[in-house]
Specification:
single chain; alpha+beta; seven-stranded mixed β-sheet; 4 helices
Length: 166
């Protein structure tokens, strides 16, 4: 039996093999499992996931590949604010390195534009070089640092991007 390649060397998924859609209640267990697999701290609780799935001020997007939930993005919106916030972007371990994070980020940006937002803002761990590269490749610029932002006292870098007009 061939040895599977590590995710960091996995080939990108063809666009037709990945589907991104709004999360539904039936995704709840998969979202909680993804959260627990992806993050060691600062996790959304099952109750928070349920609230976000049914919120007018939040949007949860999921990435589905081969009938499996492989990634999720959580967006927050404030009434009459031109700035949306990407609260979370999570990709399952086996699915990393296949372009799913980039596809989810693009879908989040498109959704924010449809909601009338002109900018998308996010925070990311200073030590998460992979995520920071992704955001910078997509045109996000660092606009500040938040000291001791995470539960383990790691700093966050705040990024923002002006969203292109369609």
């Amino acid at each position: 039996m061939p040895n599977p390649r590590p995710a960091r060397f996995a080939v990108p998924l063809p666009a037709t093999a990945l589907r991104i859609r709004r999360a539904i209640a039936a995704d709840h267990a998969g979202l909680v499992a993804l959260e627990n697999e992806t993050f060691s701290s600062d996790r959304l609780s099952p109750r928070q996931w349920a609230r976000h799935l049914d919120s007018d001020s939040a949007r949860v997007l999921v990435a589905i590949a081969e009938r499996e939930l492989v990634g999720a993005a959580v967006l927050f919106f404030r009434v009459r604010s031109p700035v949306a916030r990407l609260y979370s972007l999570a990709i399952g371990r086996r699915a990393r390195g296949r372009g799913i994070g980039s596809a989810l980020l693009e879908a989040a940006e498109q959704h924010a534009r449809r909601k009338g937002c002109t900018r998308l803002r996010l925070e990311v761990r200073r030590d998460n070089k992979t995520a920071r590269r992704l955001y910078e490749r997509r045109g996000y610029r660092a606009i500040g640092t938040l000291a001791r932002y995470y539960e383990d006292a790691e700093d966050a870098v705040r990024y923002e991007r002006t969203l292109p007009v369609d």
